[in-house]
């Protein structure tokens, strides 16, 4: 035995052994997705510069483009919610304002996700 | 649960020096920029949602929103959005590399930070060159 420290002493205060890495891992997974989907978004917007409404509508209604956009919205809003959560937890220390800010953060991310998904679905299925 | 002295009272210990003590280093500046650009993109997600809603609302509202993006203020915001996206993307890739435990050599850190900063400006310039040429 090289050390007199118990295993409990080694892990105490180092965080959860269960879902402690959940936030970290979800941020990484969505970041990888966002690299590809972000490049797609830049391409999409540049390709639609100055296009008339009919062209924009047709392109956004294309199933492949709609799928990629939906992926971007899902991955992007999860990623930005987790990222902003870290910022809030770093700078807002009072319990009340912190809870309020974390809640607003979730509402904002869900609002962006719902509004965007609704618009994409309407462009795809709407008359 | 906080690490205490074990007697229930947290002793007053000196705080470690914070940001204002250090002269800026590139890795520190890029770390701060990564957070700032992330927050900017968070706010900028409103623009994407607005654009999509406009497209789903019909030609009148879409043209109205497009005319906003076409103003000088709109273009400057979109230029900033582009750079924030590129810088945050490249910073994210840098962090993914560091997550694997590689690239912690001091010289490598400097190269990665300066490189991603330069590349973010370069990519922004390339994208806006396409914009200036009127699309792909």
From TrEMBL, chain A:
Keywords (A to Z) from UniProt: Electron transport, Heme, Iron, Membrane, Metal-binding, Transmembrane, Transmembrane helix, Transport, Tricarboxylic acid cycle
Residue runs in coiled coils: none
GO cellular component, one term: membrane
Pfam families according to UniProt: Sdh_cyt
SUPFAM superfamilies per UniProt: Fumarate reductase respiratory complex transmembrane subunits
NCBIfam families, alphabetized: succ_dehyd_anc (TIGR02968)
Name the record gives this protein: Succinate dehydrogenase hydrophobic membrane anchor subunit
UniProt organism field: Hyphomicrobium facile
Automatic annotation (TrEMBL), chain B:
GO molecular function, one term: electron transfer activity
Subcellular location, record wording: Membrane
Classification via PROSITE patterns: SDH_CYT_1, SDH_CYT_2
Cofactor dependency: heme
Transmembrane segments: 32-53, 65-90, 111-133
Chief place where the protein resides: membrane
InterPro entries on file: SQR/QFR_C/D (IPR034804), Succ_DH_cyt_bsu_CS (IPR018495), Succ_DH_cytb556 (IPR014314), SuccDH_FuR_B_TM-su (IPR000701)
Bound cofactor: record note: The heme is bound between the two transmembrane subunits.
Annotated keywords: Heme, Iron, Membrane, Metal-binding, Transmembrane, Transmembrane helix
Cellular-component GO terms for this entry: membrane
Pfam families, alphabetized: Sdh_cyt
Residues holding heme: 88
Highest taxon listed in the record's lineage: Bacteria
Gene3D superfamilies per the UniProt record, alphabetical: Fumarate reductase/succinate dehydrogenase, transmembrane subunit
Listed GO biological process terms: tricarboxylic acid cycle
Topology in membrane: Multi-pass membrane protein
Similarity section: Belongs to the cytochrome b560 family.
Subunit and interaction comment: Part of an enzyme complex containing four subunits: a flavoprotein, an iron-sulfur protein, plus two membrane-anchoring proteins, SdhC and SdhD. The complex can form homotrimers.
UniProt function note: Membrane-anchoring subunit of succinate dehydrogenase (SDH).
Protein name, UniProt field: Succinate dehydrogenase cytochrome b556 subunit
Taxonomic lineage: Bacteria, Pseudomonadati, Pseudomonadota, Alphaproteobacteria, Hyphomicrobiales
